[in-house]
Amino acid sequence: MFTATTTAPVNIACIKYWGKRDTKLILPTNSSLSVTLDQDHLRSTTTSRADPTFTKDRLWLNGVEEEIKPVGRMATCIAEMKRLRKELVEKDSSAPPLSTYFVHIASFNNFPTAAGLASSASGFAALTASLAALYELPSAPTELSLIARQGSGSACRSLLGGFVAWNAGTLDSGLDSHAVQIAPETHWPDIHALICVVSDTKKGTSSTSGMQRTVETSPLLQHRIKHVVPQRMQDISAAILAKDFDRFAEITMADSNQFHAVCLDTSPPIFYMNDVSRAIIAVIEEYNRVGLLPENGGKRKAAYTYDAGPNAVIYAPAAHIKEIISMIVHFFPQQETFNDPFGLFGAAGVTAALAPGFNANVAKTWEAGSVKSLIHTKVGDGPRRLGQEHSVLGDDGFPKYLKQ
Ligand SMILES: Nc1ncnc2c1ncn2[C@@H]1O[C@H](COP(=O)(O)OP(=O)(O)OP(=O)(O)O)[C@@H](O)[C@H]1O
Ligand SMILES: C[C@@](O)(CCOP(=O)(O)OP(=O)(O)O)CC(=O)O
Q1: What ipTM does this complex have?
Q2: I want to staple 379 with a disulfide (CB 3.0 to 4.6 A). Which of 166, 191, 199, 374 is the partner?
Q3: pTM here?
Q4: Which ligand has the shortest distance to the CA of 195?
Q5: Is residue 332 within 6 Å of ligand 2 at its C-beta?
Q6: CATH classification of 191-378 is 3.30.70.890, yes or no?
Q7: Which atom of ligand 2 sits closest to the CA of residue 166?
Q8: Where are the annotated segments for Disordered (predicted)?
């Protein structure tokens, strides 16, 4: 049986990708940089199988079959991976001709799909990684990132762990538009992330259509591409290598805010953040104001960032996460029990509290459930190959779990 299972992580950008110069090849207008999050908490799990008895390529996402559109993104990724397998077989005639067989692919996300939690990133990275394992390709993650990129731009960064840059590249072919690791997760394992889930329903304007509208209409985007992002890419890479959280936080928050400013500068304007998102910004800004006081060490202690949706991702050194959760819970009381993967709070659970000197008037206390849930995770590694026992395809070649 020719089959392989892999998991792939989500990544959340600190320097945002927003805009394409080539919509078919998915080539961006600017470079971007992200933190890969730990697959122990958020992941896509994908099994691929090639079999001479299959009659067409098929894919099931969360137990529901998705159509593979003939020239769509999914079909492109599968075709590109088959091309690499074919090249391998041409060099080694003893290798089975797997590229001539159809594939069945099943994938599950252990978090909400299409809810602004970067499921397309982990999803296309897991698809690419599982086909690479199935086809026994010797390709390095950077080479595979060229293919995942054609599924969803941000997916190329999920092929690597740690701190990852997607270099925009300049070639029309896109061959230099790939992901590279700035530093592995082991370089700075102290970076933790708290995801504040404000909404887990499908968003109004997809990233794909929203960013093209911005390219077509926003003058501010041109300034960002030419005069802002190149310097920020250099500065945040240097901050990561120096483990300088204060600088990392300053750049991350500035870039999130500029990304949402170019959305507002789009015609018609796009609004991804809501009042809850903005209240979280106010809370983190106040927390940093206190941290920046000379008597408190003079440094920022947390960084917010928002993708194309209202959910906040707060990056912070591990030592501050407990204080941050208590502060968020103070303003945004929880209905769901906080799943405490790092055991920060005892059996009694999360308690609301504010740091000394914090001005409680920066935000009101929201009604319970305004922030639906909190996910605590940290920087993590790149895709993992799993054993056959983890396959999400059954021996019959169909998903083990179909949605009822
Ligand atoms: N595990 C997966 N395997 C394959 N494709 C997936 C997987 N998960 C998500 N996708 C694809 O990604 C699409 C969702 O992407 P979309 O950009 O709308 O949401 P998102 O990635 O959660 O949000 P965002 O990119 O704004 O953070 C799905 O409809 C599906 O086509
Ligand atoms: C705001 C972002 O999350 C946008 C992600 O856009 P996508 O990668 O989802 O877009 P497509 O390439 O069209 O699939 C910023 C980022 O991840 O860098």
Answers
A1: 0.96
A2: 191
A3: 0.97
A4: 1
A5: no
A6: yes
A7: 18
A8: 385-404
